């Protein structure tokens, strides 16, 4: 394939004593970087026409994220991630037969205030032809605690044109709902999650690459939402997702296009499709503007019903809108600027759901959520 | 849908072998190394997005194994 | 090497970097001492001073391999890349021509051509003999680029994870993997030497530029390049500059030199070679495959 002249020149050059023909090893990050991001998102109120009882004000959420990435010695890279999330608002409690028109949703009465903290640490070792990492993390709320750990491995093949990755993770969650005796909620339940993924990434040409990943996740234990009335879900769930990513750089426009497609299937009966397109437009050396569009649609779970079934005759039932058939469209715009070692990022996103956007038939929910998110981030590397 | 799930990987692998005909040398990968060409360009944005969508949608799973759970779902 | 030199490392403590840079400077000086045709004690000077004399000059392995590399370039360029063509330069020497304000005549050119021709050089493993008095070799287009490769290899040996070496416009980037930012490298604009004609991203490999923007002379209103055809003795017209990207800087350098020597056929040759390039014609037209 290569030109004969190039082969001759290269062979002759490699015979020169000062030129090393060593295959480059995978190297850890060369710089230490710190990142902080604050995000705020507000869920739209539940439309009054669907509200039967309770507060229409859904969650307002603020998230602070911190990240540190640093090289450790010659062969290791360390990554620390932490986030603090605080939310307040009401959420759907249960759904009744529509009354007085469409009024069917009963929202939680009092405004809920919650906080969540999570910490993750990952240590990656870089080898001649790949790398591997261990990670451990925890997420804590007043009524929920999760611990997780995982391992992943990456190896380059085919002159580094192809990279295969794989990994496993495990999580153990403890659920201790608040006001359990008052509302006759469960106490001290638990849930286990095991997950594995396998991924192939391939360089296609000088300007494009492709990655395809298969993810299998199994949950067992208490999968019901303890705060929803009449919610009863199976105690085991297996999820499969196939994620595909295509990246293409367009030199004449100094822009990169991202296409992402995910297909999802689980044994709750939910199928879904996610399609995302983003356009990273560089403007000069220091600015980048990125519009993005995302489409998501899912089918309903086998045991979902728009109105809770309190008859006691069905083993599983939920009116959680997240198990309904619907479609969601979101549009985002990110602006990023770099000044020396500092990067500033601003992002705004609007997420809108509708039964009409769905590409799947199935039962719908009136409690679908729309939200607007804004994020402001700063990164520093040295 | 299920059919799609099974045929897609086959298409991907076919694309890979076709593309294997034009090897891109290490020194020609400058463009591919640009930050905007990464699968996940901003880890904080990816983490936040995954968390938000995980708490609002029934689906889960991306280019890595699942992370820990939370009370949001 | 008679040209500016710049070395940059990423993610390396200053103390270690200083120590390594010291070692790299030594490596550059070693190669300069050995291969400069201006230094009285260099291997090249020894070889050139023995031209026409009955004795052969023994050379060490490194020199032998460089001669072998020059031989490959000669073969691959069908005789255009010739390390004995240096004496033509004297004929077209800037200062001499300024005095004369005239082109060399065909008799002068033929006289110079007699002392030129790689095929006339007698070589045995570890030995070289220049049979004609006044014959000369020089490693222009090879040794500066080779030095950039050597310095990069040494830096890697010293444990530098990532860096860039620039020797007089020739660049070698080493040690980058996909999770890092590429190096941004400017290619000089032949029409405005203070400006970059293009900025390209290199993740690893060598970038070398050859062309007449650095040295040329104007005779009777016409610009003549310092790139001379060893077969005809005349300057070559065509490109103002050719930059080539390859795994090794030395390959990039000789590919760029050969493309310039090929003149109008240079672009097709580079296309066949399959290495990314940026060619700038004498009228400023650009042909670009690098980062495209």
Draw up the topology in text:
The complex is a heterotrimer of chains A (382), B (73) and C (292).
Chain A lengths: L3 H11 L18 E11 L7 E3 L6 E13 L3 E14 L2 E8 L3 E5 L4 E16 L2 E12 L2 E14 L4 E14 L4 H4 L5 E17 L2 E14 L14 E15 L4 E12 L4 E13 L3 E12 L27 E14 L2 E13 L16 E11 L1
Parallel strand pairs in A: 2-6
Antiparallel strand pairs in A: 1-3, 1-19, 3-4, 4-7, 5-6, 7-8, 8-9, 9-10, 10-11, 11-12, 12-13, 13-14, 14-15, 15-16, 16-17, 17-18, 18-19
Chain B lengths: L1 H18 L23 H14 L17
Chain C lengths: L4 E5 L4 H22 L7 H7 L7 E2 L2 H16 L9 H6 L2 H7 L5 H9 L7 E3 L2 E3 L13 H15 L5 E5 L2 E5 L8 E7 L2 E11 L2 E7 L4 E4 L2 E4 L13 E8 L2 H14 L3 H8 L3 E5 L4 E3 L4
Helix pairs in contact in C: 1-7, 7-8, 8-9
Written description of the protein model:
The complex is a heterotrimer of chains A (382), B (73) and C (292). Chain A is mainly beta and 382 residues long. Chain A has two helices and 19 strands. The longest helix of chain A has 11 residues. Chain B is 44% helix and 0% strand. The radius of gyration of chain B is 17 Å and the shape is elongated. The relative contact order of chain B is 0.07. The mean pLDDT of chain B is 76. Chain C has 292 residues and is of the alpha+beta class. Chain C has a domain of 136 residues: ApbE-like domains (T-fold). In chain C, β3 and β4 form a beta hairpin. In chain C, α1 packs antiparallel against α7, α7 runs antiparallel to α8 and α8 packs antiparallel against α9. The two termini of chain C are 33 Å apart. The chains are: A mainly beta (382), B mainly alpha (73), C alpha+beta (292).
């Amino acid at each position: 394939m290569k030109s004969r002249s190039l082969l001759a020149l290269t062979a002759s050059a490699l015979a020169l004593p000062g030129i090393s023909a060593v295959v480059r090893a995978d190297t850890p990050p060369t710089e230490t970087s710190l990142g902080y991001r604050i995000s705020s998102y507000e869920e739209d109120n539940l439309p009054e026409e669907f509200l039967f009882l309770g507060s229409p004000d859904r969650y307002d959420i603020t998230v602070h994220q911190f990240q540190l990435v640093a090289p450790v010695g010659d062969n290791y890279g360390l990554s620390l991630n932490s986030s603090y999330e605080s939310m307040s608002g009401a959420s759907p409690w249960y759904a009744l037969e529509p009354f007085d028109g469409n009024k069917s949703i009963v929202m939680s009465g009092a405004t809920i205030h919650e906080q969540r903290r999570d910490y993750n640490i990952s240590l990656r070792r870089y080898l001649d032809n790949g790398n591997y990492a261990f990670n451990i993390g925890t997420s804590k709320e007043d009524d929920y605690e999760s611990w997780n750990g995982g391992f992943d491995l990456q190896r380059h093949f085919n002159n580094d044109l192809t990279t295969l990755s794989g990994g496993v993770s495990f999580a153990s969650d403890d659920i201790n709902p608040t006001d359990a005796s008052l509302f006759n909620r469960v106490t001290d339940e638990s849930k286990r999650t095991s997950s594995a993924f396998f991924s192939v990434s391939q360089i296609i040409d000088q300007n494009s690459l492709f990655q395809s990943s298969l993810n299998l996740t199994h949950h067992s234990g208490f999968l019901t939402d303890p705060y929803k009335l009449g919610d009863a879900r199976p105690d085991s769930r297996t999820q499969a997702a196939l994620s595909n990513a295509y990246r293409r750089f367009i030199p004449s426009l100094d822009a990169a296009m991202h296409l992402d497609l995910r297909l999802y299937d689980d044994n709750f009966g939910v199928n879904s499709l996610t399609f995302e397109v983003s356009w990273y437009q560089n403007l000069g050396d220091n600015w980048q503007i990125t519009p993005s569009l995302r489409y998501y649609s899912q089918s309903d779970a086998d045991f979902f019903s728009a109105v809770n079934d309190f008859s006691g005759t069905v083993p599983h039932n939920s009116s959680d809108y997240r198990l309904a058939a619907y479609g969601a469209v979101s549009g985002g715009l990110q602006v990023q600027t770099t000044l020396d070692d500092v990067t500033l990022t601003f992002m705004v996103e609007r997420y809108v759901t509708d039964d009409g956007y769905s590409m799947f038939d199935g039962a719908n929910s009136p409690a679908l959520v729309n939200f607007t998110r804004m994020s402001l981030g700063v990164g520093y590397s040295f | 849908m299920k059919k799609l799930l099974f045929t897609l990987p086959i298409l991907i692998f076919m694309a890979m072998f076709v593309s294997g005909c034009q090897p891109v040398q290490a020194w020609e990968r400058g463009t591919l190394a640009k930050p905007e060409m990464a699968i996940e360009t901003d880890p904080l944005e990816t983490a936040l997005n995954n968390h938000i969508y995980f708490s609002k949608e029934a689906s889960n799973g991306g280019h890595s194994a699942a992370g820990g759970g939370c009370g949001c779902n | 090497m008679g040209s500016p030199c710049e070395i940059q490392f990423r993610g390396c403590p200053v103390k270690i970097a200083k120590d390594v840079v010291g070692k790299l400077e030594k490596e550059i000086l070693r190669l300069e001492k050995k291969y400069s045709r201006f230094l009285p004690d260099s291997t090249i000077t020894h070889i050139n001073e023995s031209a026409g004399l009955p004795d052969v000059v023994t050379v060490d392995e490194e020199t032998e391999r460089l001669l072998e590399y020059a031989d490959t370039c000669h073969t691959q360029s069908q005789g255009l890349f010739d390390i004995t063509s240096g004496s033509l330069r004297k004929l077209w020497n800037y200062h001499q021509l300024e005095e004369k304000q005239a082109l060399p005549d065909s008799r002068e050119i033929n006289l110079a051509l007699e002392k030129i021709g790689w095929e006339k050089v007698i070589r045995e493993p570890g030995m070289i003999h220049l049979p004609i008095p006044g014959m000369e070799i020089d490693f222009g287009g090879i040794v500066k680029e080779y030095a950039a490769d050597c310095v990069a290899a040494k830096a890697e040996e010293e444990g530098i994870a990532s860096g860039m070496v620039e020797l007089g416009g020739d660049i070698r980037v080493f040690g980058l993997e996909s999770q890092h930012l590429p190096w941004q490298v400017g290619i000089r604009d032949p029409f405005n030497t203070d400006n970059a004609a293009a900025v390209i991203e290199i993740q690893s490999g060598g970038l070398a530029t050859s062309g007449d923007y650095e040295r040329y002379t104007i005779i009777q209103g016409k610009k003549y390049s310092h790139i001379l055809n060893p077969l005809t003795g005349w300057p070559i017209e065509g490109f103002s500059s050719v930059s080539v990207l390859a795994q090794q800087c030395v390959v990039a350098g000789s590919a760029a030199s050969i493309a310039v020597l090929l003149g109008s056929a240079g672009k097709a040759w580079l296309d066949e070679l399959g290495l990314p390039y940026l060619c700038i014609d004498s009228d400023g037209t650009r042909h670009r495959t690098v980062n495209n």
